[in-house]
Structure formats: C-alpha cells, structure tokens
Amino acid sequence: MNTTMHSPAVTSNPPRPVQSQLSDAIHALRAIARSIDAWLAARQRAAQDLDALASMSDRELRDIGMNRASTHFVALGGRIRDYPF
Questions:
Q1: CA-CA distance, 62 to 70, in Å (whole number)?
Q2: CB count in 10 Å sphere of residue 5
Q3: What is the mean pLDDT of each run of 10 residues along the chain (85 residues)?
Q4: Is 85 helix (H, G, I), strand (E, B) or coil?
Q5: Computed from CA positions of residues 15, 19, 20, 24, in that sequence, does the dihedral angle turn out positive or negative?
Q6: Angle at alpha carbon of residue 79, lines to 76 and 82, rounded to 5°
Q7: Do 70 and 80 meet the contact criterion of CB atoms below 8 Å apart?
Q8: What's 82's DSSP letter?
Q9: DSSP assignment, residue 56?
C-alpha cells in the first residue's frame, strides 16, 4: 500500500523583531528582580521582628497575647487568635 502523507498547512505568526523579544525579556527580568527584592525585604523584616520578640521577657510576651514558643510563627507573619495561655 503506497500512500502519501500530507501534513496540514501550518500557519504561524511572522517572527517578531529581535528588539521586541529583548524588550519582553528585560521586562520579565525586572519583574523577577522586583519579586526577589520584595522577598528579601520580607525576610529582613521577619528577622527584625524575631529579634524584637526574642528580646522580650515572658511577661511582656504574655501581655501582648503570645508565648515564647510562638515567636517564630508570629515573626513570619502568622497570627494567633484567641489562644488561651
């Protein structure tokens, strides 16, 4: 059996200019850089918060509704709701 396979006509978009592709890549890299900067700022803030909480006495922590075991959780953005101590 001798059959000829024909591939369907493929329509594609014409190639984009290199300058346009580079511009898109630059915008994507800037967005990634902003995301990394925001992540690093959040990590730095969490470290500062943890230092501040670690320097408090157990009495001071209790006054603000926390205990020593929850300092990492709270420093990383967690919230303690109606937790009896």
A1: 11
A2: 4
A3: 60 75 94 97 94 94 90 83 55
A4: coil
A5: positive
A6: 155
A7: yes
A8: S
A9: S
State pTM to two decimals. Answer: 0.61
d(CA 19, CA 60): 59
CA angle 60–65–70, rounded 5-degree value? 90
Distance (Å, rounded) from C-alpha 13 to C-alpha 19?
17
Tokens of residue 81, six digits: 């709701």
- Alpha-carbon distance of 71 to 61, in angstroms, equals 9
For tokens 């059959």, name the residue.
Answer: 3
Q: What is the DSSP letter of 70?
A: G
- Rounded CA gap, 19 and 82, in Å? 57
Spell 36-54 as b/e; 16+ CB within 10 A means b: eeeeeeeeeeeeebeeebe
Token readout for 46 is 């969490």
